[in-house]
Structure formats: structure tokens, C-alpha cells
Amino acid sequence: MKDSVEKILEKQQYAVIGNHSGVKLCHWMRQSLLYQRECYKQSFYGIQSHRCLQMTPTVNHCNHMCLFCWRHQNFTESSIIIPDDPRFILDSTIEAQQRLISGFKGDSRCDQKKWEEAHHPNMLACSLSGEPTLYPRLGDFFEECHKRNITTFLVTNGTTPKVLASLDPLPKQLYVSIVAPNQEIYRRLCAPILSNGWDAILETLELLPSLNTRVVLRHTLVGGWNMQDAMISEYARLDRIADPLFIEPKGYVYVGYSRRRMHLENMPTHAQVQHFGRLLASELGYEVLMEKEDSRVVLLGANKGNRKIV
After folding, report:
1. φ/ψ of residue 196, rounded to 5
2. Fewer Cβ atoms within 10 Å of its own Cβ: the N or the C terminal residue of the chain?
3. Starting from the edge strand earliest in sequence, which strands make up the sheet with 214-221, in order?
4. What is the pLDDT of residues 219-248, one digit of tens each?
5. The CATH number of the domain covering residues in 3-306
6. pTM, rounded to two decimals
């Protein structure tokens, strides 16, 4: 990683780990410790916000340059030639998070019991930046997490079906971001830097029903781009191929570097996300199981009883 990139990440309060990984405190970690507010993953799936480790093994590696991405996009590296050891990455990210939360102890608003528990994460969100499946030892990394009874969530853009097909073990919950209802919007909105991205995503959707893990499709909704009513049937066609346990329509938020490419009006209201979710649920025969207004997200599924992972 270039020194200039590392300095930018550290200025943004990332802790850079080894040659290609990173960790950063989630907004909801702070909210949980100081204000007793929980993230939507806690509401939907039962994880504990203050014990969640938000990290990535590919802090500077991605094959998309999505217009709505809030992260620093300087993805000049297309592959990891010498991957860091999975145990080193996990140990180092936990240690880094412990350092990042150290200052909360002296804040009178901080729940001291939660602060102590936060030093021992039992949930890992492999999603912070980049495309995590570009890390060639991802299966070994998840195995190390599961040995320590750490629940794993993986968020992928769906462009690496061969990696997902051979991933062992799989994460406990697999998110696939389906941002576009068709190839043209995908090309314009996700700005892929690979030539066969859409075909790879379709291959991933066909693979998903065979994977022995909980599958969630996430539709990141960007006003004026990908959430018109007329697109619902196209999304439903893709969703039926994947047959996911859950679907999360989630609104884009106008923050970070995305403000260089988007406008405030591209950020949908929760009411608009609700409307999209209801139409899609009706098209698929799913139900709206839950919603979280402060995260602009609704949860769709066919079986409410399967929500909690822990």
C-alpha cells in the first residue's frame, strides 16, 4: 500500500493492519456505548452492536468504483500477491479496535459494562471497504473466527462466484449487494473495472441457493438512479434466481467521498425506501418483517422466525 493512501486512511480514523487490511469503529458502536442505540443488524438479526468488529481484509482492493460509495476510492491494486496470515489479521484487528475504544472509558455517557464487553468482539462484519473476496485466504480467516465463536457476516458485490463456490467455511451470513436491476444501470452506477462484472453477478445469483449459509440480498437504493417503480419487476427477477432468506432494501446516505459524485436529492427518505420494499415484497410474495427508520432500511422475508442468528 502506498504511504499516501495509508495516511489518508489513518486521517479518516482507520487502523491499517499489515499490508492490506483495516478496521474502523462503526458509527453504531459509538451509539451503543454512549447513547444506548442499536444498529439495524441488532434489531433484525440479534447481534450486539457494541461487540461487533467492522473490518476488511482488502482495505485498498476493489473491482468496482461505485458512484455512491462513501469510502476513499484509490483501488489501484487488483490482487493480493502475498496475503497476510489470517490469525495475524484477526488478532491485530481486535487489538486495534481495543485501542480505538480506549478513550470512551472516561466519557460519563459510556456504559462501562458494554465498554468491557466491547473488548471481546463476538461478531465480525467483513465489509468495511473494498471487495473482501479478493483476499485469497478468506476461508482460513473465517475458520479462525469460528474457532473463537465469532459470528461472521460477509458483504460482497457478487463478482467472484468461483471464490464463493469454493469458500470453506462460509460466513454465518452472506450479503450480496445487488445495486442495479439491469446491466446498463450496473455499468453506470457501479463503474466496474472488470469487463464481465454483470455476467459474474448473474452466476453468483444462480449459485446462492446451493450455499449452506444464510443469504441476504441488499439493494442499495439511490434516488434518480435505481429505485423507480418500473424497476421492481427487474429486481424481482434477479431475487427469484437467488432465492434469499432475506432482502434488505437500504437507502444510500449522502456522506463521505460520495458527495463528490452524488447530490443530496439522491438520498432517499425512509418513506421512499418503505414504498420500494412494499412493492418488491408484494411482487415476490415476501413480507415486510421489520424496518429501521434511522438506517433507512426495511427487511423482507418469507419467514419471520428465521430472523435471529444469535
Report:
1. -115, 30
2. C
3. 15-17, 21-23, 52-56, 123-126, 151-156, 173-177, 214-221, 246-251, 297-301, 287-292
4. 999 999 999 999 999 999 999 999 999 999
5. 3.20.20.70
6. 0.96
